[in-house]
Amino acid sequence: MNAPDFDAAAAFVAANARVLDQRRLERLFGGGGAGPVRDAVAAYRNDDGGFGHALEPDCRAPGSQPAAAEMALRIMNEADAWDGAMVKGACDWLASVAPAEGGAAFVEPTLAGWPHAPWWVPEEGHPASLIATGLITGTLHARGASHPWLDRATEVMWTRIGALTEPGGYEMFGVLGFLQHVPDRDRARAAFGRTGPLILERNLVALDPEAPGEVHTPLDFAPEPDSLARSLFDDATIKAHLDHLAQAQRDDGGWTFNWPAWSPAAERDWRGFLTVDNLRILRANGRWLPTSRTAADQRHTSRNTNGGGLVDYAARKVSRASLYTVASVWAMTLAVRGTARESAVSPTSSPRSIRRIKRPSWKTSNCPAAIA
Q1: For residue 100, what are the contacts with CB-CB under 8 A and spacing of at least 6?
Q2: Which end of the chain has fewer CB atoms < 10 Å from its terminal CB, N or C?
Q3: Cα torsion angle, 365, 205, 231, 250, sign
Q4: Based on the number of CB atoms within 10 Å of its own CB, is 246 exposed (0-12), middle (13-18) or buried (19 or more)?
Q5: What is the pLDDT of residue 289?
Q6: Low-confidence ranges of the chain (pLDDT < 50)
C-alpha cells in the first residue's frame, strides 16, 4: 500500500505554505484548535463580508470574489471551524452581487487592474456559474445553513442541472458539490442518476493515472469513499489513482498541480493548499492511518541515515511540542543536511513521479482566455 511521507509533507508546509495552510495541517492532523484556522481565514475577509486578498491563489486582487468565499467556507467546514457571523457576512455579500437569476458569478469585475490568472475573466451578462454556485451551496447545505441567498441559489442549481446536457469538467465539480449535500436526497439521487454518467460519456475524466496534461481524475470527481460519483468507478481504478496520488509527492515533500502556473506566488500558495488537501484525501481513503504526532518524542526514523543525531536531539528538545513545531524542526533539519541527503540517494533509484496532481480549481475550460 502506497502511503505519503507525512514528515516530509509537514516540513514542506512549514517551509513554503501560507499560515492558513499551516493551521489547516495542524488542525486536521496534529490536534490543533479550530480558532487559529478561523482566525487565519478571517485575515482574508473584507469589510463587505466577502473574501479576497488571494485566498483563492489565482486571483491576487484584494476585492471580494465568489471563489474566495467558496474557499473560506470550505476551509472552515473541513476544519470544523464554522463561524456563523462570518458565514452570514459572506452570504450577505453574495446576495449583494448576485446575478439577476440568483446564485454567484464565476468572477466579479472588481479584479480589474490586479494580477490574476488569464482564465479569470468575467462572463458577459454576469450569469450564475455552476462552479461557484454549486460549490458554495454544497458547503452551506452540508452545514445546515439558512439564508435567502442560499434559497435562491438552490433553485438556480436545480434549474440548471435539469437542463444540463453538455457540461464541462469544472462545471461538474459544482454540480457534484451541490448534489452531495442538498437536503432533498431523493431529488439529488435522481439528478445524479441522469447527470453523473455524463462524466464518462463526455470523456471528462482520465481513467489512466499516467494521462498527461491538464486532465481530471476519478479522485477529482469522487475524492472520498462516500462521494456520489464514486459509484462511477470500479475499485481497481480508484486504487490505481490513489497509488498515483501517493507517489506524486515530490522530493521536496509537497504536491503540485497540472494546470498552468502563471505566477510564482500562486504556484507556491496552491502547492501548500494541495499538499494538505492530498494528505486529507489519502487518509480518508485509508492510505494512511496517522499515529499521534502531537508529541515530538516520537522519533523520526524514515530519513535517519544521515545527520540522524541532529534529528533525534531536536525531537528530544521539543518533547510534547505541537505537530507544527515538529514540522519546523524538520524544515531546519533538512536545510542543514541537504547535501548529505542528496548524496544518500542512489543514482539508480527511481525518482518520485512528478506528474502534477490537481484538485478542483476555478479554471473553466469554457473560458475563451483559458490556456490550453
Answers
A1: 126
A2: C
A3: negative
A4: buried
A5: 62
A6: 292-372
Helix/strand/coil percent split, the chain, to 5: 50, 0, 50
User: What pLDDT was estimated at residue 324?
Assistant: 45
- Whose cell is 509537514? That residue is 10
Measuring CA to CA, how many Å separate 288 from each of 65, 234, 245, 276?
35, 21, 12, 13
Residue with cell 505541537: 322
Q: Of 81, 72, 79, 83, nearest to 30 (Cα)?
A: 79
Q: Provide the pLDDT for residue 336.
A: 38
Long-range contacts of residues 154-157, Cβ cutoff 8 Å, at least 24 apart: 154/178, 154/182, 155/102, 156/101, 156/102, 156/103, 156/128, 157/103, 157/130, 157/133, 157/182
Domain limits, the chain = 1-32+235-344+352-363, 33-204
Q: In 3D, which of 216, 155, 158 has the Cα closest to residue 188?
A: 158
Q: Where are the alpha helices (DSSP H) in 210-345?
A: 218-221, 235-247, 264-284, 308-317, 323-336, 338-343
Average pLDDT score, the chain:
84
- The answer to whether 310 touches 336, Cβ cutoff 8 Å, is yes
| 213 backbone dihedrals φ, ψ, rounded to 5° | 85, -170
Cell 509533507: give the residue.
9
Contact (CB, 8 A) for 361 and 74: no
- What angle, rounded to 10 degrees, do the helices at 264-284 and 235-247 form? 130
Residue at grid coordinates 439558512: 146
pLDDT (0 to 100) of residue 288: 77
pLDDT tens per residue across span 234-291? 999 999 999 999 999 999 999 999 999 999 999 999 999 999 999 999 999 999 765 5
Q: Which pLDDT value is given to residue 290?
A: 59
